Automatic annotation (TrEMBL):
Belongs to the peptidase A1 family. The active site is at 123, 327. Gene3D superfamilies: Acid Proteases. SUPFAM superfamilies: Acid proteases. GO terms for molecular function: aspartic-type endopeptidase activity. PANTHER family: OS04G0448300 PROTEIN, OS07G0603500 PROTEIN-RELATED. This is Peptidase A1 domain-containing protein. One of its GO terms (biological process) is proteolysis. Residues 105-443 form the Peptidase A1 domain. Pfam families: TAXi_C, TAXi_N. Keywords: Aspartyl protease, Glycoprotein, Hydrolase, Protease, Signal. The lineage of its organism: Eukaryota, Viridiplantae, Streptophyta, Embryophyta, Tracheophyta. InterPro entries: Aspartic_peptidase_A1, Aspartic_peptidase_AS, Pepsin-like_plant, PEPTIDASE_A1, Peptidase_aspartic_dom_sf, Plant_Aspart_Prot_A1, TAXi_C, TAXi_N. GO terms for cellular component: extracellular region.
């Protein structure tokens, strides 16, 4: 077989088996004096650690993947619905914007003066920054850290309805207490409260960002965010952390799924330039959903052969449908149906194992491992041909093996609309978003050692 590699399967290994493939508006902050953070800071940048939402739950790699797939399937539906919303609600009703919700990584930060620490979900697929706030006039869900009380902070200020950030909300309501917001998420979670500004602290309570706009949620429903006390949006819209910092670059380096080591998010100058080993493609904007990071995928090769996928499979359509986004909050990659079917067919032809039809893993394509869980398994190479960038993935970024389950699975799924490049495929790459140049770069990296 062409472009295959042998994989030695260790007997009785309950975790993942080793696979390999060949070759495989707070711009004022910029003028603030930054104190040294827990990792490293320079003027105009900081780094924070990211923790996977399932970290510390003693899960095998396949179990971690299964939990992520359940979240990702629902997220995929809502991301598609956001691009092509259903018929608008009658004018007399208040139609809250529906966001994708959830996410896969948490960041630690602090809010207020004096600072109160909490964890928040990081999401490249949404914009609003928000946290639960006292007095929780209607409801707050249980969170692992104290709920922020704005009355205890000397730097809290509500935003007026005339503010630019209030105008940037998809749906804003003007009340007696200023600008109000309401967001609902795909899992029926919601947050409602007032828009305000506050001092946020990143990197071990030492990098302070004053007057950051955020939602102070006094009515928060559902359990979709129970791992943390809110959400930090890293999307392209004006409400996101990226936009408010007025920093043109950010990057992250995600460790392997269920790795005990934390991942890293770098903002501003610490995001760094693309290196010599990087591959770089352009970012595309979709007027129907301007917050998402779209990329131009032109084709896919499996085992060294380009697949017969029509160009229309990955094209961004004039009505805003289709295309591919890169998303840190979705676990596996989802491909438009025609493209996924070709990828699946190629893997079935290339891997000399029987297909597991039990459906026990939640993944669409799995193979039965050799008897005893040891031996050599050959897996084909996988290359994503982005515009101007051929990204060859290491095998562990697309094949998940578990001898306790007796299977090796393709970590990809089928979509009936938008395609999504998920975080399993991004692991152990430094992924750099350069919004000044409108580019996205991938640099191979051992993220656990970064």
């Amino acid at each position: 077989m062409a472009a295959l590699t042998s994989v030695f399967l260790l007997p009785l290994l309950a975790a993942a088996l080793l696979l390999s493939s060949p070759a495989a508006s707070t711009s004022r902050w910029l003028t603030q004096q930054l104190h040294p953070a827990t990792t490293t800071t320079t003027g105009g940048g900081f780094q924070v650690a990211l923790t996977h939402v399932d970290s510390g739950k003693n899960l095998t790699k396949i179990e971690s993947l299964q939990r992520g797939i359940k979240r990702g399937n629902y997220r995929l539906q809502k991301l598609n619905a956001m691009v092509l919303p259903t018929q608008s609600a009658p004018s007399e009703d208040v139609a809250a914007p529906v966001e994708a919700g959830n996410g896969e990584f948490l960041m630690e930060l602090a809010i207020g003066t004096p600072p109160v620490s909490y964890s928040a979900i990081v999401d490249t697929g949404s914009d609003l920054i928000w946290t639960q706030c006292e007095p929780c006039s209607i409801s707050c869900y249980s969170q692992p850290t104290p709920i922020f009380d704005p009355s205890e902070s000397s730097t809290f200020a509500k935003l007026p309805c005339s503010s630019d950030l209030c105008s940037a909300l998809p749906q804003s309501l003007c009340g007696s207490d200023g600008c109000n917001y309401l967001y609902t998420y795909g899992d029926d979670s919601s947050t409602e409260g007032v828009m305000a500004t506050e001092t946020f602290t990143f990197g071990g309570n030492q990098v302070k960002v004053p007057q950051l706009g955020f939602g102070c949620g006094e009515d928060n429903q559902g359990d979709g965010f129970s791992q943390g006390g809110g959400l930090v949006g890293l999307g392209r819209g004006p409400l996101s952390l990226v936009s408010q910092l007025d920093q043109p670059k950010f990057s992250y380096c995600l460790t392997s799924i269920n790795d005990a080591s934390s991942s890293t998010l770098s903002m501003g100058s610490l995001a760094g330039p693309a290196g010599n080993s990087s591959v770089t493609t352009g970012l595309i904007q979709n007027s129907a959903q301007p917050s998402f990071y779209y990329v131009a995928l032109e084709g896919i090769s499996v085992g060294g052969s380009s697949l017969p996928i029509p160009a229309s499979a990955f094209a961004l359509q004039s009505d805003g449908s289709g295309g591919m986004i890169i998303d840190s909050g979705t676990t596996i990659t989802y491909l438009e149906g025609v493209a996924y079917d070709e990828v699946k067919k190629a893997f079935v032809a290339a891997i000399d194992l029987s297909v597991d039809d039990s459906g026990s893993t939640g993944l669409d394509l799995c193979f039965d491992l050799p008897s005893g869980g040891s031996g050599n398994v050959e897996v084909p190479s996988l290359v994503f041909h982005f515009q101007g960038a051929d990204l060859e993935l290491p095998a562990e970024n697309y094949m998940i093996a578990d001898s306790s389950a007796g299977v090796v699975c393709l970590a990809m799924g089928r979509s009936n609309g938008m395609s999504i490049f998920g975080n399993v495929q991004q692991q152990n790459f430094l992924v750099l978003y350069d919004l000044g140049k409108e580019t996205l770069s991938f640099t191979p990296n051992q993220c656990a050692n970064s």
